[in-house]
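re: that chain from earlier
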Amino acid sequence: MKTIQMTIDEPLLHEVDQVIHSLETNRSAFIRKALRLALQKHKIRKLEERHAEGYAQYPVEKGEFDIWQDEQVWGAE
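^ sequence. v structure.
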């Protein structure tokens, strides 16, 4: 693990300190978890963008998935 230094405004730090107290953790662990979550959200957002770009380039054609319609279980009717 590497130690880093960062700048944070006091109101945000105060809010973090309140949360870490209630979670019974420390600043470092809380910030590590927050960074992991932010990186995961970023990765998902990028994948969703690629997905949307793919469908924009190659849109679904009418009837393309009709063959699967009868295979889908829609629940009680």
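DSSP finds two helices and no strands in the chain.
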